[in-house]
């Protein structure tokens, strides 16, 4: 497929600094295929409504989602599925409230996928499933029906994203150019992918780490992502791996600073031994999470300098100005 | 033989400026401040097709500009908290006048002309009291300062004259800042933003605000429709994941937030950078932080969004709207964004229709 890119670049304003084809074929497509597969397995696992079995399938699905969640453009944007797959951050506890409403009313929407697609997005997706499976709940028939409805909707979302990428979006992205309705140049396709990379790193730094860290005077351990299922740390590790894979696929040259910075951040994330990041409230353990956040900041700067600068998309003239 | 440009400059010098129109400045339909690759700052004119009509140097980073309704001159404002504004001849590039904020005041970066083009109004901070002011300058007197009056709140940001009316609208953002602390926000707990309408003589005719619980939503950017309604864009001073919808319509005396689904609200990252009242009656807002342009129907609410890194400037145009970004792109705003121009410039916050 390499020749497609070379041909496209004859008409592109920037030199060959980024490999859109590699991003699509080595990164985006496999990630969405894996998420699709995990979604189907989740549906199977909820059939018998066995909690440990469902919990294991939930973890596998969340693992798979972490491989694709930073790809926030294309089908997920067009179909508006981002929050329906993972409703987080959730400062107003909307997931709890929406689930409580469904359960109290024994809302029959759980029996019909079309109706369930219309309930609050906060009651859909991985975070709703986490709340259902990892808090004390009566395992009533409605509990089972709700778990099955959430699993079914997640699986449909995953299948729909995978089908859209495979169906035509992969080709649309790889065939950027003046005739392309979405990506009007190779440079634009590269910029969109780069934005996914930088936004993913920012989300990791500011939200996954920044939210629970809060301030030293006021740490917010309850704000850690997926803390009930004790996968806050795991999500950070998987997110770093996914973003590193995207950076590596996107850059067509060696990126030594970026590689070193990712290695450092991943080593620190791996070594945390704090699955739900509750150490943010413990001065002795908090320090290691702060250092990890700084290491992610180092990754952000390295990516900006080694990839962003080469693509002519260094961080925001306007977005950082503010007014 | 004198070039056209020096000939025109000569005309200017001899006081024949009244003969010139915007056509003499290359027929721009829009203005924007920008930065060149070398790090210099310019004011540029854009044609409806996205091409550059002119480019004139600025001494520092600009923010917004305002175009005279008839003459090819623009007032370019420094970035907040600036104390200068320049009146630029968009034909010759000459700086016709330099406006200095009066002692104890600074500009907020926006302004408007009176309907007859004789007066310029500017949003200002009276530093000692922290009260917002609207400064008044007389064009016929070489843009002499001729007065000032309350803006109706703290932190007035964008102001405009409603199309076809002698009525001014001011977005009082509600946030107190002081030059010695830069852009640090000093009153977030008690801020009270509002939209204030006043006559050109300064009489406040109407004021509107969001309900009390939303007082941390700072009204910063506005755009006026021909029917007198005003599109409003807010910036939420709180958790970006715990904020309200950020686009509202002021109509018939009340300010109403437009419906927007949660994921669309989150896409704005608590920040609306510019607002446009499009020529097809819809509203466009940008968020450079979210890297997104959203289009709203004034009745139905959110319609559609398009991703575009560092997009901020947006304004009405003949074909609905134009948007500009910090990477040099000029886009047609319709059902989706369509890139119609690419320049070696970083376009600054605001795109202004002439």
Automatic annotation (TrEMBL), chain A:
<dbReference type="Pfam" id="PF09375">
    <property type="entry name" value="Peptidase_M75"/>
</dbReference>
<dbReference type="GO" id="GO:0030313">
    <property type="term" value="C:cell envelope"/>
</dbReference>
<dbReference type="InterPro" id="IPR018976">
    <property type="entry name" value="Imelysin-like"/>
</dbReference>
<dbReference type="InterPro" id="IPR034984">
    <property type="entry name" value="Imelysin-like_IPPA"/>
</dbReference>
<keyword id="KW-0732">Signal</keyword>
<feature type="domain" description="Imelysin-like">
    <location>
        <begin position="32"/>
        <end position="299"/>
    </location>
</feature>
<dbReference type="InterPro" id="IPR038352">
    <property type="entry name" value="Imelysin_sf"/>
</dbReference>
<feature type="signal peptide">
    <location>
        <begin position="1"/>
        <end position="18"/>
    </location>
</feature>
<protein>
    <submittedName>
        <fullName>Signal peptidase</fullName>
    </submittedName>
</protein>
TrEMBL record, chain B:
<dbReference type="InterPro" id="IPR008311">
    <property type="entry name" value="UCP028101"/>
</dbReference>
<protein>
    <recommendedName>
        <fullName>Twin-arginine translocation pathway signal</fullName>
    </recommendedName>
</protein>
<dbReference type="Pfam" id="PF07433">
    <property type="entry name" value="DUF1513"/>
</dbReference>
<dbReference type="InterPro" id="IPR006311">
    <property type="entry name" value="TAT_signal"/>
</dbReference>
<dbReference type="InterPro" id="IPR015943">
    <property type="entry name" value="WD40/YVTN_repeat-like_dom_sf"/>
</dbReference>
């Amino acid at each position: 497929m390499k020749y497609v890119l070379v041909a496209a670049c004859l008409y592109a304003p920037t030199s060959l600094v980024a490999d859109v084809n590699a991003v699509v074929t080595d990164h985006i497509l496999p990630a969405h295929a894996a998420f699709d597969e995990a979604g189907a397995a989740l549906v199977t696992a909820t059939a018998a409504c066995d909690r440990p079995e469902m919990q294991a399938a939930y973890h596998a699905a969340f693992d798979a989602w972490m491989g694709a969640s930073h790809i926030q453009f294309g089908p997920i944007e067009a179909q508006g599925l981002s929050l329906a797959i993972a409703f987080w951050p959730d400062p107003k506890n909307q997931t709890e409230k929406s689930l409580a409403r469904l359960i109290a009313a024994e809302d029959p929407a759980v029996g019909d996928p079309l109706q369930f697609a219309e309930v609050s997005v906060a009651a859909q997706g991985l975070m709703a499933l986490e709340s259902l499976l990892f808090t004390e709940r009566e395992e009533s028939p409605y509990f089972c029906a709700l778990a099955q409805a959430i699993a079914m909707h997640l699986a449909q979302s995953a299948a729909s994203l995978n089908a859209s990428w495979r169906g035509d979006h992969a080709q649309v992205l790889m065939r950027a150019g003046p005739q392309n309705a979405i990506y009007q140049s190779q440079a634009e396709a590269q910029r969109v992918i780069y934005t996914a990379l930088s936004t993913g790193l920012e989300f990791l730094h500011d939200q996954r780490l920044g939210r629970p860290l809060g301030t030293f005077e006021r740490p917010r351990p309850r704000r850690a992502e997926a803390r009930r299922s004790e996968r806050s740390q795991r999500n950070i590790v998987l997110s770093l791996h996914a973003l590193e894979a995207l950076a590596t696929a996107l850059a067509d040259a060696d990126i030594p600073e970026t590689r070193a910075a990712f290695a450092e951040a991943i080593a620190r994330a791996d070594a945390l031994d704090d699955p739900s990041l509750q150490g943010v409230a413990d001065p002795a353990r908090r320090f290691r999470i702060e250092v990890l956040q700084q290491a992610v900041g180092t990754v952000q700067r390295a990516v900006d300098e080694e990839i962003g600068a080469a693509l002519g998309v260094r961080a925001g003239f306007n977005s950082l100005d503010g007014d | 033989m004198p070039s056209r440009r020096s000939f025109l400059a000569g005309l200017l010098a001899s006081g024949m400026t009244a003969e010139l129109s915007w056509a003499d400045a290359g027929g721009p339909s829009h203005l924007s401040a920008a930065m060149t690759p070398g790090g210099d700052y310019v004011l540029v004119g854009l044609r409806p097709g996205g091409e550059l009509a002119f480019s004139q140097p600025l001494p520092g980073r600009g923010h917004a500009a305002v175009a005279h309704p008839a003459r090819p001159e623009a007032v370019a404002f420094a970035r907040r908290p600036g104390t200068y504004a320049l009146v630029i001849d968009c034909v010759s590039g000459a700086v016709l006048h330099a406006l200095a904020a009066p002692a104890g005041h600074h500009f907020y970066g926006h302004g408007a002309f009176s309907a007859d083009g004789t007066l310029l109004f500017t949003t200002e901070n009276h530093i000692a009291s922290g009260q917002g002011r609207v400064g008044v300058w007389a064009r016929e007197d070489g843009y002499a300062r001729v007065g000032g009056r309350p803006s109706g709140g703290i932190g007035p940001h964008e102001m405009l004259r409603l199309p076809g009316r002698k009525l001014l609208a001011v977005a009082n953002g509600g946030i107190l800042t002081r030059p010695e602390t830069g852009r640090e926000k000093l009153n977030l707990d008690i801020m009270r933003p509002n939209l204030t309408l006043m006559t050109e003589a300064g009489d406040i005719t109407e004021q509107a605000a969001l309900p009390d619980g939303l007082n941390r939503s700072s009204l910063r950017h506005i755009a006026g429709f021909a029917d007198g309604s005003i599109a409003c864009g807010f910036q939420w001073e709180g958790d970006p994941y715990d904020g309200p919808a950020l686009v509202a319509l002021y109509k018939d005396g009340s300010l109403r937030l437009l419906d927007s689904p949660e994921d669309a609200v989150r896409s704005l990252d608590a920040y609306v950078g510019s607002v446009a009242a499009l020529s097809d009656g819809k509203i466009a807002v940008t968020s450079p932080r979210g890297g997104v342009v959203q289009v709203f129907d004034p009745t139905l609410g959110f319609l559609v969004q398009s991703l575009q890194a560092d997009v901020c400037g947006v304004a009405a145009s003949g074909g609905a709207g134009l948007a500009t970004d910090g990477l040099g792109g000029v886009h047609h705003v319709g059902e989706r964004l369509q890139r119609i121009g690419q320049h070696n410039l970083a376009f600054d916050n605001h795109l202004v229709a002439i």
